[in-house]
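step 3/5: co-fold with flavin-adenine dinucleotide
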Amino acid sequence: MSRPSTLAQLFALDSLLDADEIAIRDTVRDFANARLRPHIGDWFENAELPAREIARELGQIGALGMHLEGYGCPGMSATAYGLACLELEAVDSGIRSLVSVQGSLAMFSIHHWGSEEQKNEWLPRMAAGEAIGCFGLTEPDFGSNPSGMRTNAKRDGDDWLLNGTKMWITNGSIADVAVVWAQTDEGIRGFVVPTDTPGFSAPEIHKKMSLRASVTSELVFDNVRLPGSAMLPKAQGLSGPLTSLGEARFGIIFGAIGAARDCLETAIDYSQSREVFDKPLAGYQITQTKIADMALEVGKGHLLAYHLGRLKDRGEIRPEQISTGKLNNTREAIKIARECRTILGANGITLEYPVIRHANNLESVLTYEGTSEVHQLTIGRALTGEAAFR
Ligand SMILES: Cc1cc2nc3c(=O)[nH]c(=O)nc-3n(C[C@H](O)[C@H](O)[C@H](O)COP(=O)(O)OP(=O)(O)OC[C@H]3O[C@@H](n4cnc5c(N)ncnc54)[C@H](O)[C@@H]3O)c2cc1C
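step 4/5: write tokens
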């Protein structure tokens, strides 16, 4: 038998990256495999992520706010950031979520929409992983349609008074700072809210069967008094949070395919050692058909991610292209995770292998940062010129 190729060799994926990108990818991969992979099954099972510790270590390898310039941020390319997301999600979507929310949602919002004072106060500490951020957009009654949000900020002299509730907020109860979107007399505006402000609380959401190695919380604002300077001066209306979401969705295009790769590598490996009916499972045509079909999707998912990375690095990417990548790669990843689970048989349902964990995590990834249906509607609008959201 000839020596088997890796998935990367099948598509000659490294030929599409430069030496710096490969070095960054390998640094994150080595960190993820050495520091995170040995513990992830337990963190998932016990729903306990040592997020502060991990955030500091991620800060040390330059994975937080990776594609942002200045203020202590690493200033790397969008493609390099995507590759880091891919390697982190190959371990667990919860870890990639920590990085996405920190870098793409909270830090990007402050970096892109904030005042100099806000940037200097928060970004260096967030890049180092010494301060954790969250991003509060979704509410109990408004997920896909955040324009209906009820959280509101009212002027009170020079201050703002913030009231309302946010739901499903990643990093919520461990955050030092929350970027919160609220209705005001001037429309939707963003606020930088230190989480030790009186009236702020963040009860953690329990009983999740997905993203268990990730903190998810409610945010409650009960007359939270903020100075006038807490508002993000440059974000006006829903385009503020939607632009930030585009950044995080971009990371998911890469991340989801990392989870798929990990499932497929696990399934190939398993099929080579598991004997059924007196020979390795890998030697059956049905298994090879499954593996070949999944490899095509993992490879195409990488190619799409790399292409969109290049477009983003040239400043040319459009929202419907991000939707295309997020929809395709997440949807294919969850199909691959489920198919790989069949190859592992009963072993596929345990946390001894990563496959069921990835499959469960990808249920959240399919829903957050725009559900599949919302991305279908975005692509449909781009192609037909008709908006069908209502
Ligand atoms: C683990 C996890 C972490 C999260 N982290 C964050 C976070 O950090 N910050 C944050 O703000 N939010 C976060 N979210 C929330 C997430 O963004 C929302 O769950 C998502 O936007 C969907 O909203 P919803 O759950 O209210 O579903 P709904 O909007 O109620 O959607 C329910 C169903 O209706 C479909 N639907 C909606 N509109 C249409 C339409 N026009 N046409 C056809 N079908 C439609 C949806 O696609 C979906 O299938 C997180 C969610 C999860 C699960």
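step 5/5: annotate
The mean pLDDT is 97.
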